[in-house]
Amino acid sequence: MTVSExxxxxxxxxxAGWNTAKKSLLAHDASFRWYDRLEKETGETMVLMNAxxxxxxxxxxxxxxxxxxxxxxxxxxxxxxDLENGFLLLEDFGDxxxxxxxxxxxxxxxxxxxxxxxxxHLQKKVSSNQGLREYDWDxxxxxxSLLPLWYIKHVxxxxxxxxxxxxxxxxxxxxxxxxxxxxxxxxLLDYHxxxxxxxxxxxxxxxxxxxxxxxxVTYDLASLLEDARREVKKEIQEEMLxxxxxxxxxxxxxEFKEAYPLMAVQRHTKxxxxxxxxxIRDGKNRYLKHIPFVWSLLEKHLDNPLLSRYKTWLxxxxxxxxxxxxxxxxx
Length: 331
Known about the structure:
The chain is of the alpha+beta class. It has 2 domains: about 5-90, Phosphorylase Kinase, domain 1, CATH 3.30.200.20; about 125-190 and about 210-325, Aminoglycoside 3'-phosphotransferase, Chain: A, domain 2.
């Protein structure tokens, strides 16, 4: 941070009454945001979020946070804000992410049930656009194109022709027509166990939702059950889908079942590209190790007849042996 940024932060904390609190780094994520935990001598804690203006959009975080809070979901309450400088003081949920709880031996199925029930609650409450940006063709294709633009270019080290990219676009236009046949809702875009918590009050708390859009109901469910960073047991996936359809029976349609795997493949496609971009552009290498696993998630869907053309395109441009390796590792 620059001197002026530090001065702005100190002024913000002083005005909020937290300038003398002990500060410790809580987390960085895949964006430019970072988080500190603040702790007073009384033991009271707060989370400081720094979302650098120009690189992040703190106003969007506030908008989505308040929207989710208003429909009864547990998100960090915002106690103080300085949107001009990108500073927020947030409710501290503690450290119990679902990921950590699973590692500690908590019942995995019960945690996933809480996650699915929160998603059901959200989708029952939001069936119309409430000022959210659309998760439309332009964004969905841009995300998918991260695979050729970053993975193929930098990992496969192959320059695609205009014809290759045109075919890629045509394939995704066909898939998009199937994907968009399901209802739309508020889509959190990063709904998985790393971003879910059991709060100090025992509720299911949601994190990392500032990029939310209005888009297909299939997205967050696929994000949760086909997690890019951990294997979700098949029996848990099946039971969670059953729970979901029991609560939302009108979604139990042929259109949903057709769109769900296609939405999962779109997410896996973009995540592979994003993980490479995080390394090449931002110097963050901790996501590279997940890439072979994400490939395995994607490939399990490629027997689907709707994905036959995409499978052919991938096989033409990305050798199988490369998909199985962690990129940029020596040896």
